[in-house]
């Protein structure tokens, strides 16, 4: 089952570990030469960016993923064999995902 808070934490952690160092390195490369002041400014810039963006962006991404996962539609047919006749059952995804899998011949995803 999709846990939106865990997903958000994982996305925020990914941005902090990938995007923050990349921004810091890009900022360092702006300067014509390496210096302690330039390194400090780049680190401060990257930390501020991470603090201002990562958590909020992770929340937006997690909400979008959560919405699309929970509102996905699945359909198909189940064919059962083993008797002289083949039996089919239509699988429908209802407009209310909360009851999918409760009514016979529906498929639920949790």
Helix-strand blueprint:
Layout: H1 4-28, H2 36-70, E1 76-80, E2 87-91
Antiparallel strand pairs: 1-2
Helix pairs in contact: 1-2
What's this, in brief?
This protein is mainly alpha-helical and 110 residues long. Helix content is 55%, strand content 9%.
What is the H/E order?
A: HHEE
Q: Which regions contain 5 or more consecutive residues with pLDDT less than 50?
A: none
Helix share bin: 40-55%
What would the average pLDDT be, to the nearest integer? 80
Total strands: the figure is 2
Strand order of the largest sheet: 1-2
Gyration radius over CA: 24 Å
Give the biggest beta sheet: 2 strands, antiparallel
Q: Which band does the percent of strand residues land in? A: 5-15%
Overall 3D shape: rod-shaped
Put simply, the count of helices is 2
Note the gap between the termini: 5 Å
Q: Kindly name the structural category.
A: mainly alpha
Account of the protein in words:
The protein has 110 residues and is mainly alpha-helical. Helix content is 55%, strand content 9%. It has a two-stranded antiparallel ribbon. A hairpin with a 6-residue loop joins β1 (76-80) and β2 (87-91). α1 runs antiparallel to α2. The model has no long low-confidence stretch (mean pLDDT 80).
Descriptive keywords:
rod-shaped, mainly alpha, 2 helices, 110 residues
């Amino acid at each position: 089952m999709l846990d939106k808070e865990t997903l958000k934490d994982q996305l925020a952690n990914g941005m902090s570990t990938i995007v923050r160092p990349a921004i810091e390195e890009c900022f360092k490369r702006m300067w014509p030469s390496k210096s302690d002041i330039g390194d400090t400014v780049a680190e401060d810039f990257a930390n501020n960016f991470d603090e201002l963006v990562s958590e909020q962006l992770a929340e937006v991404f997690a909400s979008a993923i959560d919405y699309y996962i929970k509102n996905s539609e699945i359909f198909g047919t189940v064919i059962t064999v083993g008797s002289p006749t083949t039996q089919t059952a239509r699988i429908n995804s209802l407009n209310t995902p909360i009851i999918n899998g409760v009514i016979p011949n529906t498929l639920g995803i949790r």
